[in-house]
């Protein structure tokens, strides 16, 4: 074997060992996709699959399919959640879903402030902060999504925008409750576009966010908050992204829809 080939083999082994040691939070956001039959076949497909001990796997389907998740995943380590909630108890809120209902179906996570909710449904930071608080009060972990669009990225003011999204999003909960929150950095220009942020871009932004969190909320709390990356993650790019500093896991859209692809991503994160 050539010297360079040996180096590559050793490097790959070290990378796989590093991945094997770290536990990642992997969240699949199905958005408004899949039929009942497709959901059933996905769940059958993953039923006997061993996702391993260290990674936490969460799938977030459209609400009508939650009953299937409750039925099929009751004894599984795979968790599930909702893509949105309304921050009130039951009542006259046509078309909305309460945390009580999400809890009733065994949901453990809720995606809050996804860029599609912010842009298509005009959700603002204040509304989002109420949802974060409601989740925490109801024992459902909010995954607070933050991220800049391409123009904001180019203007170079995106870091201040990210800080505002975090500060305002978390403004209605106590510092002691921050360990119940997950933050997902999702640059809008990389969501569903096939254009991933490079590992260097992800690392730079995650280090920046982590520093803000520790400066603002103290190092214990700030280091404890899982920081996910989301934006066109797939089996080809996930390994390099996972090695970026301060990446605790991934929020995955398109590549979470196919059971094989989702399992492949998990295999890579398990160092296989
Ligand atoms: C998402 O929906 O949050 C997302 C990151 O989607 P995709 O992986 O398809 O870019």
Main sheet, how many strands, which sense, barrel? 8 strands, parallel, barrel
Low-confidence segments, given as residue ranges, are none
Order of helices and strands: HEHEHEHEHHEHHEHHEHEH
Helix fraction?
40-55%
Bound molecules: phosphoenolpyruvate
Per the CATH scheme, the topology name is: TIM Barrel
The tally of structural domains comes to 1
Query: What is the strand content?
Result: 5-15%
The quaternary state of the protein chains shown equals: single chain
- CATH H-level superfamily title: Aldolase class I
Q: How big is the Rg?
A: 19 Å
Q: In CATH, what is the class?
A: Alpha Beta
> How are the strands of the biggest sheet laid out side by side?
1-2-3-4-5-6-7-8
Q: What's this, in brief?
A:
The protein has helices at residues 3-21, 36-47, 66-72, 99-104, 115-120, 125-137, 150-155, 158-169, 199-217, 219-224, 238-243, 259-269; strands at 25-29, 56-60, 79-82, 109-112, 141-146, 182-185, 227-230, 249-252.
Task: Write up this protein.
- The protein is of the alpha/beta class and 272 residues long.
- It has one domain (29-269): TIM Barrel (Alpha-Beta Barrel), CATH 3.20.20.70.
- The chain contains twelve helices and eight strands.
- The chain has helices at residues 3-21, 36-47, 66-72, 99-104, 115-120, 125-137, 150-155, 158-169, 199-217, 219-224, 238-243, 259-269, and strands spanning 25-29, 56-60, 79-82, 109-112, 141-146, 182-185, 227-230, 249-252.
- It has an eight-stranded parallel beta barrel.
- α6 packs across α8 (158-169).
- The longest helix has 19 residues, at 3-21.
- The protein is globular and about 70 Å long.
- The chain starts with a helix and ends with a helix.
- Phosphoenolpyruvate (PEP) binds at residues 29, 31, 186, 191-192, 230-233, 251-255.
